[in-house]
């Protein structure tokens, strides 16, 4: 039930959007708590927006300023989308922005989860008829702004996401871009050594990773320079990610937010990095260990986005939602370029060469035990039984063998598995590292490089006391790019150009 109140927060709606009209602003009683509800409609697109903030927090103007930013950026994109397509957007469900809470931006290193045995793995995917009837829809993402610590549930109607994604594909806006260097996209840069395996690793207990590039020398090779290392301020490598737009990084959700918690990590994203040298960097400092202090402004907006299910305590089987997008304040991609993004059924994916590269941690620990899955570098030590002497923190590593995928699980509403396993070797720090391919007629366009999945978990133990990988051919678990996830990437890229 709605009821009028004497206090309403300062009304900033439509301050920079001329074609916008407030439909109502009221206080609503729900679940024994009043909240401010504002619904307004664009006169130009006909799209409705609904903002809801608990009444007891309504005096915090930063909440409404951040909500209005999401509205204004979305509306600006939708005006262009409607002009480009001629489609009418009026009558769709409202874009809804619910303030959830103040989060915490904390210092620290994420930890890669160890996956439990999952006997439900199968190969069925890519076909809508296999889609389960009761699969949860992914219509909203958590939106967290480290600068103000505000977290929202950001709901976008499927019709809007699908229309934008259709236009994205028609105009090939999901393709890669090589950046200022204008390098040729050439698969010959990839190291492919399939002659032998090396000790101390994952798939079949063999580690086939080698360091890419020289010690403490920035990575200039395309597309490796589009892979990001997340520096959390420690002495070891943190997580990995991929530029898939001028200021858009896709990674594992657990690299930016501890599941079902209010803790988000302060980090610096560095691309083209090897050791103490990198091509470019962008910082998301937040306010470590504080929920009241204002964060330092660095001149541009930045956001963390994760699926709403990742943030909910009641969700089980959370690995399928271990997907995150960071909108960084700096346009690093203009300099180093970015990967495209594409999905395909596993049968199609296994017709092309795929590669895995990222930034593993060295001498990492798990629950107080030393991990044994650091990459052994055969160029440095061909017979090492421990690799701590040859693993270089903050350096780019990659499996010298091509990767295969299979053993998919967690079907979504389109019949695509949100998770599958991969044969290439990974370890702590490789979370968020891309599995990518070079385009061809089956999976994309010639002359492009496509992100198609990222690492999230190891399926066997990382310590001496945990399970062996001796009989595991695909030892790392991935979050796979599905049509649903691809549509969300397209939306955030369009909203935050």
Task: Write up this protein.
This protein has helices spanning 61-85, 158-170, 308-311, 333-336, 346-349, 483-495; strands spanning 2-3, 20-30, 33-42, 48-54, 95-102, 104-106, 140-145, 150-155, 209-211, 227-231, 239-245, 248-251, 263-265, 267-271, 280-284, 303-307, 324-327, 340-341, 354-358, 365-366, 369-370, 397-399, 405-411, 417-422, 434-438, 449-458, 476-480. It is of the alpha+beta class. The chain has two domains: 1-101, no CATH class; 167-495, Trypsin-like serine proteases (Thrombin, subunit H). The strands form four sheets. The protein has a 14-stranded mixed β-sheet. Strands 9, 18, 19, 22, 23, 24, 25, 26 and 27 form a nine-stranded mixed β-sheet that branches. The protein has a two-stranded parallel ribbon with strand order 6-13. Helix 2 (158-170) packs across helix 6 (483-495). The longest helix has 25 residues, at 61-85.
**According to CATH, what is the class of the largest domain?**
Mainly Beta
Overall residue-averaged pLDDT value? 82
Radius of gyration: 23 Å
Q: In order across it, which strands form the biggest sheet?
A: 1-2-3-4-5-8-7-16-17-12-11-10-14-15
Query: What is the 3D shape?
Result: globular
Question: Distance between termini?
Answer: 39 Å
Strand fraction equals 25-35%
Question: Which stretches are poorly predicted, pLDDT < 50 over at least 5 residues?
Answer: 1-19, 288-299
Let me know the largest β-sheet.
Answer: 14 strands, mixed
**Tally of strands:** 27
Q: What's the number of domains?
A: 2
What is the CATH topology descriptor of the largest domain?
Thrombin, subunit H
């Amino acid at each position: 039930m709605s009821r009028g109140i004497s206090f309403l927060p300062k009304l900033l709606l439509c301050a920079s959007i001329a074609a916008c009209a407030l439909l109502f602003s009221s206080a609503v009683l729900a679940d024994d708590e009043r909240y401010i509800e504002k619904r307004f409609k664009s006169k130009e697109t006909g799209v409705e927006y609904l903002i809801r903030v608990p009444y007891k927090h309504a005096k915090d103007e930063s909440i409404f300023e951040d909500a209005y930013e999401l509205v204004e950026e979305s509306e600006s994109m939708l005006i262009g989308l409607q002009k480009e397509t001629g489609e009418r957007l009026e009558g769709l469900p409202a874009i809804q922005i619910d303030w959830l809470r103040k989060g915490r931006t904390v210092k620290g290193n994420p930890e890669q989860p160890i996956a439990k045995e999952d006997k439900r793995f199968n190969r069925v995917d890519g076909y809508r008829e296999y889609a389960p009837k009761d699969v949860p829809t992914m219509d909203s993402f958590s939106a967290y702004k480290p600068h103000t610590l505000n977290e929202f549930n950001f709901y976008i109607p499927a019709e809007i996401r699908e229309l934008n994604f259709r236009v994205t594909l028609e105009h090939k806006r999901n393709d890669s871009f090589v950046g200022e260097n204008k390098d040729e996209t050439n698969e010959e840069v990839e190291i492919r050594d399939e002659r032998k395996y090396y000790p101390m690793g994952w798939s079949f207990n063999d580690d086939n990773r080698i360091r890419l590039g020289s010690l403490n020398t920035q990575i200039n090779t395309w597309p490796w320079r589009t892979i990001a290392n997340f520096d959390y301020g420690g002495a070891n490598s943190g997580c990995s990610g991929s530029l898939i737009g001028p200021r858009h990084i896709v990674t594992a959700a657990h690299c930016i937010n501890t599941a079902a918690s209010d803790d988000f990590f302060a980090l610096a994203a560095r691309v083209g990095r090897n050791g103490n040298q990198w091509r470019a960097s962008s910082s998301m400092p937040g306010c470590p260990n504080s929920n009241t202090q204002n964060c330092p402004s660095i001149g541009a907006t930045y956001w963390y986005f994760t699926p709403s299910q990742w943030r909910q305590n009641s969700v089980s089987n959370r690995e399928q939602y271990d997907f995150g997008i960071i909108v960084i304040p700096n346009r690093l991609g203009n300099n180093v370029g970015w990967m495209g993004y594409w999905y395909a059924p596993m049968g199609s994916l296994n017709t092309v060469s795929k590669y895995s590269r990222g930034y593993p941690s060295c001498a990492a620990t798990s629950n107080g035990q030393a991990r044994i899955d650091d990459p052994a570098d055969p160029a440095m030590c061909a017979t090492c039984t421990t690799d701590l002497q040859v693993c270089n923190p903050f350096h780019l590593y990659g499996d010298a063998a091509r990767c295969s995928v299979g053993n998919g699980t967690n079907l979504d509403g389109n019949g695509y598995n949100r998770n599958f396993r991969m044969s290439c070797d990974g370890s702590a720090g490789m979370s968020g590292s891309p599995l990518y391919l070079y385009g061809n007629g089956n999976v994309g366009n010639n002359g492009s490089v496509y992100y198609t999945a990222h690492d999230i978990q190891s399926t066997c133990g990382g310590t001496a006391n945990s399970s062996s990988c001796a009989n595991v051919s695909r030892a790392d678990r991935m979050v796979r790019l599905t049509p649903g996830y691809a549509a969300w990437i397209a939306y955030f890229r369009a909203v935050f150009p």
